Amino acid sequence: MSAPVLQTGPLDLLFAPFYWLLGLWSLFMSWLAGVTGLELLRYGFMHRAILVGVCIGVMAPLIGTFLVHRQLALIGDALAHTAFAGVAVGLFLNAVLDLGVSPYLTAVVVAMVAALCIELITEATDADNDVSMAIVLSTGFALGTTLISLNAGGLAVGVNQFLFGNLSTVSAENAAILLALFTVIVGVVALTRNQLLYVTFDETAAAVSGLPVRWYNRVTVMLTAMVVVGAMQIMGVILVAAMLVVPVAGATQVSRSFGESIIVSVVLAELAVLLGIGVAYYAEATAGGVIVLVAVAIYVTAVGVGKLQHSAAESTAAVAGAHGAEDADGD
Questions:
Q1: Where is the chain membrane-spanning (predicted)?
Q2: Helix axes 44-69, 172-201, angle to 10 degrees
């Protein structure tokens, strides 16, 4: 199979390393197709879709673990709706001014601004996070629908792939954008993991110790915005938030520590994404919906395994207690 066709544009120089990685990935997928004989590995658009899915399977639970433990699971929904507004802005600018800019780039900018707005509204008004999220969510969706209604012809057709996701529309340019976002997200989390962990579990103690808590809160929501836009390509705006929450919820059922929870959630997310893409391809179904259904099935399985682990631990403790009582009686 041939390597992916590279796009031409002003950002090509910046994204050149990521295009090179895409070429290597496509060669690997072509070799894997020859070894396994799997049909879905023979096509260039599936190479890019699988790569995007693998990246989502890492970065979504990586950020989602912090969000779930901070009880901010719904922030993904709020940012997804603002990312939709960002897509509408990109499509509108392309239709009116013929700028030729990727809607995913405008979605990144708008979603990150919205993420900052959520934090700034909370800080300035002392409102709860759910209030600021509701305000930003409503504003984002209202902006998106208004821009689409201004030019309903071309935009309405183009926006469907962003609402529901599509495996076949992941271009080399959009895959390169996803790789850039993936690099930033993993790099920032690797550098600030201890600080984010401290703020997540005890924000007051973190502030007393001198950590700039507000700054780290802003970093967290901006990383969340990047994940949402990156995952939107195959998940769609409507279902993108599920990958931030469902694998993490499953991992918390069977994990005994925060670090273990991150690793298990990444494994569960990768299973959901790869199985979901495979089923969606052969069943000709929408990838986002299938991936979420697979993730929920894995979550239910994890709940069952967690219950069995808990019962086994209680039985072991009861047996150990009985033996201890017998030994005491013998003495």
A1: 18-38, 50-72, 78-97, 104-122, 134-163, 175-192, 221-250, 262-283, 289-306
A2: 10
CA-CA distance, 69 to 327, in Å (whole number)?
A: 42
Structure tokens at 294: 């697979």
Averages of pLDDT over runs of 10 residues in the chain (331 residues) are: 49 80 91 88 89 91 89 81 85 78 84 87 78 85 81 58 76 86 92 88 85 88 87 79 89 87 93 92 86 93 88 78 68 61
Which of 245, 218, 232, 237 has its CA nearest to residue 178? Answer: 232
Structure tokens at 323: 């033996």
Six token digits for residue 42: 């023979």
C-alpha–C-alpha distance, residues 203 and 213, integer Å: 7
Return the exposure string of 145-171: e unless at least 16 CB atoms fall within 10 Å of the residue's CB, then b.
eebbeeeeeebeebbebbbbbbbebbb
Please identify which residue in the block is written with the tokens 């939107």.
232
